[in-house]
């Protein structure tokens, strides 16, 4: 069985060709065209000596699916190629990817810096769970101000964290600027690229060290399964900072194993991923089932087609929303009026994704009316699905925050979050038009007509 016989991932092919073919496995026994689902816990050893060699990592073969599985390996190779990394690790969810990616670097007593605008689940993970591990997060106020970053660096700072397209506000960060700062400080830069996918941006090409995704979203695309991935850019010199990152520069087996190579000596620029796979994910155990890896593989093969359509539909929807008098703002960087538009032009020539908010001047009551009147959009906590989705962050994902905290984040009572799907744009606009017609149905006492009444009256 061989993988990657053709050197995908080095600009020999276009993105769409790579997403179909990179990492594909040639099945020597039956000629199965698609990497099969290897639902097996472990792998057979031929003999006593063979088992010993496998455990010593000397023949490159597989031991147990908590560490590696052929279905997952094929999908990891595809993602490595698409992100222009050196290695990848699939795990059970996006949250697992963020957790193991950071625990591959951080330990108790460490501190890390983050951009302020993040997925709320990451914020609570950092503030509450990481805090219990003895790892402290600090959020900068203004991610565009390098002095704000610099003055927060401490002797125990070990990483910089951010997101490509944070939702619902889509307040883009300048990835190159933050990557330069991190490099100068000798810190790895981990970036969550869930909302962008490698089709819209490859953060490693802009200086990021490690890319994480919730692969449950656009990468899988169909809302059927959860998955997460950590991609190693292979571009950070871990051995240069042995005091900061001793795990990469101590002999494998610990200080009591003099003579053993270090991870960097043994695995070169894949040392981080190898450590995160075997010591962090392999022990904590958030493994991705090969069944879900297969579903992710199916999704990846159409990624560019979907994301292109998601982005095109989103721009149409954002422009339509911007023209409605009830809407006070639309947080879509593809719009020339958006504060992040210059960064969108710089970093996202193919579009800025499809998860964004808009704010209704009439506040929560209007948000309720519009959300309840939508028929094609599913009311759901998810994003990056082929289906269009809608959510009211103020009373769901951000409900645990105080009013003042929500206002600081721009989560006003009238904010509605959309994840625009791949349906026909005319149908999406018709659904929104219907919902806004319901909103306008009774001036002064908005929203008294139901969507069915409006449709019936047409
Ligand atoms: C940007 C981002 N990162 C990570 C996650 C967590 O992903 P998962 O739900 O797969 O654990 C999410 C989930 O919505 C997300 O939006």
Map the helices and strands.
Layout: E1 2-3, H1 15-21, E2 25-26, H2 48-55, H3 70-83, E3 87-91, H4 94-103, E4 111-114, H5 120-132, E5 136-139, H6 146-150, E6 157-163, H7 175-185, E7 189-192, H8 197-200, E8 210-214, E9 228-232, H9 263-267, H10 271-284, H11 290-300, H12 303-322, E10 327-330, H13 341-347, E11 355-360, H14 363-373, E12 378-379, E13 389-391, H15 403-409, E14 415-419, H16 425-440, H17 451-457
Parallel strand pairs: 4-5, 4-6, 6-7, 7-8, 12-13
Antiparallel strand pairs: 1-2, 3-9, 8-9, 10-11, 11-14, 13-14
Helix pairs in contact: 1-3, 3-11, 14-16
The structure holds pyridoxal-5'-phosphate (PLP).
GO cellular component, one term: cytoplasm
Keywords: Pyridoxal phosphate, Transferase
Protein name: homocysteine desulfhydrase
């Amino acid at each position: 069985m061989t993988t990657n016989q053709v050197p995908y991932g080095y600009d020999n092919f276009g993105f769409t060709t790579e997403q179909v073919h990179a990492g594909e496995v040639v099945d020597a026994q039956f000629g199965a065209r698609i990497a099969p689902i290897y639902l097996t816990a472990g792998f057979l050893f031929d003999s006593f000596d063979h088992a010993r060699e496998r455990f010593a990592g000397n023949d490159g073969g597989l031991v147990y699916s908590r560490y590696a599985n052929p279905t997952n390996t094929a999908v990891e190779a595809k993602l490595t190629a698409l992100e222009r990394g050196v290695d990848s690790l699939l795990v059970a969810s996006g949250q697992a990817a963020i957790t193991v990616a950071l625990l591959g670097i951080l330990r108790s007593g460490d501190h890390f810096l983050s951009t302020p605008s993040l997925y709320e689940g990451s914020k609570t993970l950092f503030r509450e769970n990481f805090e219990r591990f003895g790892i402290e997060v600090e959020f900068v106020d203004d991610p565009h101000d390098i002095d704000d970053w610099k003055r927060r660096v401490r002797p125990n700072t070990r990483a910089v964290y951010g997101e490509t397209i944070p939702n619902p506000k889509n307040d883009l960060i300048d990835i190159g600027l933050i990557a330069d700062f991190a490099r100068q400080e000798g810190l790895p830069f981990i970036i969550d690229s869930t909302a962008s996918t490698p089709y819209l941006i490859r953060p490693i090409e802009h200086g990021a060290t490690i890319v994480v995704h919730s692969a449950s979203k656009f990468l899988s695309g169909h809302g059927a399964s959860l998955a997460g991935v950590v991609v190693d850019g292979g571009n950070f010199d871990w051995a240069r900072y042995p005091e900061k990152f001793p795990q990469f520069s101590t002999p494998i087996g610990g200080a009591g194993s003099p003579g053993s190579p270090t991870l960097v000596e043994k695995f070169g620029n894949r040392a981080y991923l190898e450590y995160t796979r075997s010591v962090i994910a392999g022990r904590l155990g958030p493994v991705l089932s090969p069944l879900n890896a297969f579903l992710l593989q199916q999704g990846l093969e159409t990624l560019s087609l979907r994301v292109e359509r998601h982005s095109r539909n989103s721009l149409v929807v954002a422009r339509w929303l911007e023209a409605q008098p009830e809407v006070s703002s639309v947080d879509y960087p593809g719009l020339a009026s958006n504060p992040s538009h210059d960064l969108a032009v710089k970093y996202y020539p193919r579009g800025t994704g499809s998860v964004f908010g808009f704010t209704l001047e009439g506040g929560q009551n209007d948000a309720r009316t519009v959300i309840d009147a939508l028929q094609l959009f599913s009311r759901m906590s998810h994003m990056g699905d082929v289906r269009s989705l809608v959510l009211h962050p103020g009373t769901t994902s951000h409900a645990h925050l105080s009013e003042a905290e929500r206002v600081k984040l721009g989560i006003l009572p009238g904010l509605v979050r959309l994840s625009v799907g791949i349906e026909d744009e005319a149908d999406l606009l018709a659904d929104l038009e219907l919902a806004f017609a319901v909103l306008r149905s009774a001036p002064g006492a908005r929203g008294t007509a139901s969507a069915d009444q409006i449709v019936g009256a047409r």
